[in-house]
Amino acid sequence: MSDYLFVTGKLAADALMPTIKKMEPDFKYEVVVLNISVAALMDTLWIARHLSEARGCDRVMIPGGCPGDLSILEDRLGVSVIRGPKDLKDLPVFFGHERILEGYGEYRVKILAEIVDAYRMPWNEILAMAEYYRAQGADIIDLGCPPQGGFPGVKRVVAGLKEQGYTVSLDSFDPETILHADEAGMDLLLSVNSQNMTLASKLHCKVVVIPDFGKGLESLERNAAQVEQWGVPYVLDPILDPISFGFTESLHRFYETRRRHPNAEILMGLGNLTELTDADSIGINAVMVGIVTELGIDYVLSTEVISWARGAVTELDLARKLMYYAHKNRLLPKDIDDGLLTVKDPPHESYSEAELHHMHQLVSDKNFRIFTDDTWIYVFNHDIFIRGTDPQEIFTQLDVTEPSHAFYLGKELERAALSVQLGKKYTQEEQLRWGYLSDRRMPT
């Protein structure tokens, strides 16, 4: 008795068998090829009319693109019926023994998300941004203040956020603003050094201690010693500098700070990298959170001001879970969670040109099938087989004039071309995969 009966059409039959064998399955199976060219054109009613028995198998798998009520087939066949993947090349993944990621989702580092222009925003916009950041994974909402001057109404804003259950930090050197925010219950002040040190002893919140401006690690040590003498709770921030302005040296400061203070809380601000480097923030955040995890850093501060850093808070949230799990279990941060693979895709299989030519020989209708590999777009029906790279040139050869059909093919060809350009997996009538960006919620 076999475990699975795979149901397919004539067009996909020749590709199905080697795909199953490639899996080296640890179960017994049979394959039934029904009298239809394209398996996706079947529905459960059609299959029920053309498949009378399960052939002694415990379970029947139909292609993922087949619509209809599965119970119709289950009643007909008397066994469980499931849908497989829409693309049979994905069968190995479907049957893969997924690693049990016990404890995955845990993390150590907390995320501060800065509302950069909070000092000049109305309350409803501040609250909307806070809600957005919290939904993306932020633990602390940081209120940005002007480089010089104060934040009128900061007491009301801090109190309002606290009433909504937020943990609040303030990024300011203005004494009046700091004191008002402290009265309203702020949790963390960014930052103190010798310039405003005397203020620290008057506060009820934790403070972030930084080096004196233009000074090095020893000034951080002096400032930290002073606040510790006063009994003020503190977090150390050696300051991460931008690339070309001391980035590598600043990484060493973080390493040395952790070596000198193995139990101290440390914060790293990542905006000097993500906002000041012409590169997507995703990879930068992933690597930096790996460093943060190895050093045992407790807080990261991020912003989403520049266009390529939008989503940085979500990226940090995903990265901290990935890196924590990998570090804790002594694993590479690979093949665990692919949410940070957005522009490029995880590894995937494509049909070879030979396989597609064989499919073409079996096609007997005028409907166009579209496939891609690493280089080419392929389009074929019963009459033509086209291989190309330019959607417009391919479309011209199709000789399609009916407006809705032309629109459909134009849309699919552009999507196929984009998938080739980016190395993404293309499946006809399916959206491309964009990692976490596929279901990302933006602030309203």
Structure write-up:
Strands 10-9-8-7-6-5-12-11 form an 8-stranded parallel beta sheet. Helix 1 packs antiparallel against helix 14 (353-362) and helix 12 (281-295) packs across helix 13 (312-328). The two termini are 57 Å apart. Helices cover 39% and strands 15% of the residues. The chain has 3 domains: 4-95; 110-328, TIM Barrel, CATH 3.20.20.20; 341-444, no CATH class. The chain has 444 residues and is an alpha/beta fold. The protein has helices at 10-23, 44-50, 70-77, 91-95, 123-136, 154-163, 175-183, 197-200, 217-229, 247-260, 271-274, 281-295, 312-328, 353-362, 391-398, 403-422; strands spanning 4-8, 29-33, 59-62, 80-83, 110-115, 140-144, 167-171, 188-192, 206-209, 234-236, 267-269, 299-302, 369-372, 377-380, 385-388.
